[in-house]
Amino acid sequence: MASNKPITAENNPSSISIPINTKQSPQTSAQAQTQQAALITPPPLTTTTTTTTTTSAASLHDSLNEAKDTLTEVMDLVYESRDINDEVKALLSELSRETRATAHNTAALIRNSGLRNPALPIAPIMIYRPGGGGGGGVVETPDPALWPRDAEEFYALRQPGTEREGRMVRYLVRFYRVDLRRDGDGGEDEGFDAELAVEMVENVLGLREERFVDFRERGRMSRRLVPVPGAGV
C-alpha cells in the first residue's frame, strides 16, 4: 500500500539541487585572456626570414651587375666588328682602285707598244698613288690639256719649239716623276734635257719609236713605187 507521505529532499535524493558557482577565479580568467591573445596576435618574424630576404636582394643585385657587364662586352664586340668591317671595306675599295688602274695600264701599254702610225693617239698611263696617314689610294690621270695628241707631237718635244711644248715636256716629267738629274746637277730647270725626258717618258708609255720609223719608211717606199700618171709615155 502506497505511502501518503509528502516527497521531500529527505525521502527523494534525486531532487536534491546542487549549487553551481558561476564566478571564475582570478587565475582562470588570466589564462583565458592569454589564450585569446595568442589566437589574435600573429607570430613575430624570425631571424631566418630576415636573413633569407637580405640574401635574395644581394643575389639579385649581383645578377644585375653580371647582366650589365655582359651587355657591355656584347656592345664592345659589336662596335669592334663594325670597325673591322669598315677597314675591310676600305681595303677592298683601295685594292679595287689599284686593280682598275693596273688593268687599264696593261691594256694601254699593249696598245702603245703596237702603235705604228704616228698620227694615232697615245693611250695615257694612269698613276696609282697609295694613301698615307690612313687615307685611301688615289688614281691620277694626265691632264688632257698637256697630253700629246699623237706620237708625232710627242717626239717633237725633244726640241720644244713653243712655250706650250716646253710646258708639256716638263709636265710629263713631273707627272710620271721621272728623275733627270745627273750627279752634280741642280734643280729641274737647270740644264733640263728635253731629249732625255722624252726618252724616259717613252719607256713609261711603252712606245717604240722604231715602229714609227718603219711605218714612215714604208710609206715613202710606197709613194716611190706608185707610178706617176703619164710617165714613160
Structure summarized in a few sentences:
Residues 1-21 have a biased composition (Polar residues). With 233 residues, the chain is mostly helical.
Describe the protein's topology:
Elements: H1 26-40, H2 47-113, E1 127-129, E2 138-140, H3 151-155, H4 163-175, H5 194-205, H6 209-225
Antiparallel strand pairs: 1-2
Task: List descriptors.
233 residues, mainly alpha, two-stranded antiparallel ribbon, 2 strands, rod-shaped
Instruction: Give the strand line-up of the largest sheet.
Output: 1-2
- From the spread of the alpha carbons, the general shape counts as rod-shaped
Q: In this structure, how is the largest beta sheet organized?
A: 2 strands, antiparallel
In whole angstroms, how far apart are the ends?
210 Å
Overall strand count: 2
**Poorly predicted segments:** none
Roughly how many Å is the radius of gyration? 58 Å
> pLDDT average, as an integer?
77
As a percent range, the share of strand residues is under 5%
SS element count, helices: 6
The run of helices and strands is: HHEEHHHH
Helicity level, as a percent range? 55-70%
Decide which structural class fits the backbone: mainly alpha
Biased composition (Low complexity): 22-54
Region (Disordered): 1-54
Biased composition (Polar residues): 1-21
